[in-house]
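To assess whether ligand presence alters the predicted conformation, the chain was also submitted together with zinc ion. Input:
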Amino acid sequence: MSSKKNRSISVTDTILLVTNAGGRCSFNYEGKYCNKILSDGRVNLGERAHIVGVNGPRANESIKCDKNAYENLIWLCRDHHKIIDHTSNLNIYTVDALREMKARHEAKISTGRYPYYGSDQTTHDYSVLSCLFEFIDIHTLYSCAASYPRIHLDFFDVSDMCFHFREGNPGALPLKDPVLRRAFMNFESSHYNLAQLLRPNNTVSEDMFTHIYTWPRTIFGENRVYKYLLDVERLIDLIESRFPQILHQKVYDPFPEINM
Ligand SMILES: [Zn+2]
């Protein structure tokens, strides 16, 4: 979209557009969605795309509407703006398809599925979690311990990762969202308690090839594993309800040789 066209979109329409989109890219199509946060309350990184085009893509003189009004705009990230406007995609992202896309996105935002507790806090928590889970494969959080009493050594990496993240990013933790903050603290403390219990000792058998350790099964151990898994599930559910794109990582299999 050229800046010349943007000039005629009012501030009121822009605010309405960004707010109703929850500050996130509205792109969603056949179950794929973007949801990227594009606003921190001061700087907007999103783009106001025309649904019915002014002169460019999807321009249609027979559709009468105010082309620069909220009703004819959709809030998108730069990548998805390019994708919907690309010549080869115009028969996919039609005027009707884009109207439906916008309606679906705004309906989802209005259900509160993506809690919005202030743009600065939201952006802070998003950047912290997305950075942390670049280094921690989120699937290992669960799968490494769910196989108790067989535990993959990757389980022990999580606390190291959190420790190094804290060192390298002072002020990043604790998270700002109170619900997410508590869930993250519970997760870390359950992980710590389980890791303390599972410290390798002479009762543990080790498979040097697969890095899987097997502990003697105890009720006490099972209870700690259970508590840990519940806290992982709670944290992952909360992250998914706020920042679903963080969970778009490939599925990790801790026991590939065994499951083959
Ligand atoms: Zn996008």
